[in-house]
């Protein structure tokens, strides 16, 4: 975990385990996300539930994995939502100590990002709340974090709208995106200037106009990586244990002129070279 490859491997292992669990428990609803899982069984006695728990542990052990399983739960917190089977309600869940932190209102980010941040937070909390009361119960830490970041907006409940009827699928246009990094210190409108250059160098009579025009070339500003995270990664890279330096890079180690130390610094060597009956002695030192 911690890298893209690790996440992909975790997903593949999860799919493999889900396939095994679905064969052992065909009547259950089982889900896995990375290292968290949730299973729903109906009309089970406590004894039967405990047997299923042990079976689940055995399945994971059979593939070399360990797991902790809790059974007979009516209220469970899974990922970022708390589910209550007793009353059928759900609301947002936050792990202890996981306080939200948002960009400051005066930070160097695109204005649209700063403007829509409160609305996107309200939408997210609304989606994880079964009703308006559950929404307001979960709102405190988010409004506090927004206030500390300089925002004065009040978060409002956004009820779920009925799903629209599926529309006819149209062929998607292939879009080429230009994503210049945003900076409030730059006064030039880079996006506008870029599109003007597009019109200038690819006019309608140009043979490549159908590929490079305002309909299929779009501009969207991007944000640079967080400086604190970049600095921490660099410090970790510098202070971590380095791979030992290779002592020899010869193709055949047995033919190394300095006995496998050709890559080491400041190694003095002597070589006797015989040619046409005469022997010459060479003394040298490796770089360093």
What does the model show?
The protein has 288 residues and is an alpha+beta fold. The protein folds into four domains: 70 residues; 70 residues, no CATH class; 67 residues, no CATH class; 33 residues, no CATH class. 33% of the residues lie in helices and 15% in strands. It is built from seven helices and nine strands, in the order αββαβββαααβαβαββ. The strands form four sheets. A three-stranded antiparallel β-sheet has the order 3-4-5, with no helix packed on it. The protein has a two-stranded antiparallel sheet with strand order 1-2. A two-stranded parallel ribbon has the order 6-7. Helix 6 links the parallel strand 6 and strand 7. The two termini are 39 Å apart. The model has no long low-confidence stretch (mean pLDDT 84). It holds the Pfam family HTH_animal. It comes from Holothuria leucospilota. This is Helix-turn-helix domain-containing protein.
Key attributes of the depicted protein:
three-stranded antiparallel beta sheet; two-stranded antiparallel ribbon; extended; alpha+beta; 4 domains; Helix-turn-helix domain-containing protein; HTH_animal
């Amino acid at each position: 975990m911690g890298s893209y490859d690790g996440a992909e491997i975790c997903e593949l292992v999860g799919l493999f385990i889900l396939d095994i669990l679905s064969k052992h428990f065909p009547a259950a609803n089982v889900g896995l996300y990375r290292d968290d899982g949730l299973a729903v069984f109906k009309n089970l006695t406590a004894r039967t539930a405990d047997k299923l728990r042990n079976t689940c542990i055995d399945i994971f052990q059979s593939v070399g994995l360990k797991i902790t399983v809790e059974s007979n739960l009516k209220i469970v917190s899974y990922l970022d939502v708390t589910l209550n089977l007793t009353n059928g309600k759900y609301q947002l869940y936050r792990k202890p100590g996981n306080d939200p932190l948002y960009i400051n209102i005066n930070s160097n980010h695109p204005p649209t990002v700063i403007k829509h941040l409160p609305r996107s937070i309200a939408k997210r909390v609304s989606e994880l709340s079964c009703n308006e009361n559950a929404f307001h119960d979960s709102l405190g830490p988010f409004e506090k974090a927004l206030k500390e970041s300089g925002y004065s907006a009040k978060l409002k409940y956004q009820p779920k709208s009925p799903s629209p009827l599926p529309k006819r699928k149209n062929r998607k246009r292939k879009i080429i995106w230009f994503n210049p990094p945003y900076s409030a210190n730059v006064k030039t409108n880079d996006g506008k200037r870029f599109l003007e250059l597009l019109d200038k160098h690819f006019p309608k009579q140009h043979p490549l106009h159908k590929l490079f025009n305002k309909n299929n070339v779009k501009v969207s500003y991007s944000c640079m990586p967080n400086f604190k995270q970049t600095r921490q990664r660099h410090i970790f890279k510098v202070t971590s244990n380095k791979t030992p330096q290779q002592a020899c890079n010869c193709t055949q180690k047995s033919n190394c002129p300095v006995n496998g130390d050709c890559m080491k610094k400041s190694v003095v060597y002597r070589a006797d070279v015989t040619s046409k009956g005469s022997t010459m002695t060479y003394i040298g030192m490796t770089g360093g």
